[in-house]
Amino acid sequence: MPKVKTHSGAKKRFSVSGSGKLVFKKSGRSHLLECKNAKRRRRLRQKGVLGGTLGENVKKLLPYA
């Protein structure tokens, strides 16, 4: 059986936590942060968790993660 290739875009955007959840960096945190309030910046600082059907689809793109 040949090896399954990992999706390049998915491996850059998602990682698997110790408990097996998919985590990702939230968007809107790279620039123009002065106009965003502190509450919003704190919320964007935290990692996002991907679950449900979308999470299952992304796990297929990361076969060895």
Automatic annotation (TrEMBL):
PROSITE patterns given in the database record: RIBOSOMAL_L35
Protein name per Swiss-Prot or TrEMBL: Large ribosomal subunit protein bL35
NCBIfam families per record: rpmI_bact
Xref: Gene3D superfamilies: 4.10.410.60
InterPro entries cross-referenced by the UniProt entry: Ribosomal_bL35, Ribosomal_bL35-like, Ribosomal_bL35_CS, Ribosomal_bL35_sf
GO cellular component, one term: cytosolic large ribosomal subunit
Gene Ontology MF terms in the entry: structural constituent of ribosome
Single GO BP term: translation
Family the entry assigns: Belongs to the bacterial ribosomal protein bL35 family.
Domain of life: Bacteria
Alphabetized HAMAP family for the sequence: Ribosomal_bL35 (MF_00514)
Key words, A-Z: Ribonucleoprotein, Ribosomal protein
